[in-house]
Specification:
two-stranded antiparallel sheet, 3 helices, 2 strands
Length: 157
């Protein structure tokens, strides 16, 4: 048995860039243990028939990561960027009936801030955004007193 470590395994050296590997063929790589004969969105036969998962878009990029002890995986940099996640963030995994797994970044909302995300409040935010887009904004104020005076004048109308 060789004492040489496999490339890309183990803890990366400090300051080293994350490695990504791209499969440049259209066929799934079946040489790895546990890899299925067909990837999601691809048909394993070579007849050119349309896949049963035709609703899935073709991949823009393929990257791989190794599962280490305790099922730990380091996300490739490009994947973390697309998910919008960093160290300490949560991920949500959704598995559909066909076995396709969807991963997305997950943000919990603190209970003291959930009022902001209610449908009523979000409707008001959307209305305010539309008013701003339409140029329906008040003039700027140079002081709080000037702003309150304007508010008081609006209430008299």
């Amino acid at each position: 048995m060789s004492s040489k470590k496999p490339a890309g395994r183990g803890k990366p050296k400090s300051g080293s860039a994350a490695r990504s590997y791209e499969n440049t063929t259209d066929e799934p790589d079946t040489s790895l243990p546990g890899n299925k004969s067909s990837a999601a969105g691809q048909n394993s036969d070579s007849s050119g028939a349309e896949s049963s998962n035709a609703h899935h878009a073709e991949p823009v990029e393929r990257v791989r990561a190794s599962v280490r002890g305790r099922r730990q995986v380091t996300l490739p940099e490009s994947v973390a960027k697309v998910l919008g996640v960093a160290e300490g963030d949560d991920l949500e995994f959704t598995i559909d009936e066909s076995g396709t797994i969807t991963v997305r970044g997950w943000t919990s909302i603190p209970t003291d801030q959930r009022w902001f995300w209610t449908p009523e409040w979000q409707a008001g935010e959307a209305e305010a955004d539309q008013q701003i887009a339409n140029g329906e904004v008040s003039r700027g104020f140079t002081s709080a007193a000037e702003m309150f005076a304007d508010i008081d004048n609006d209430e008299d109308v």
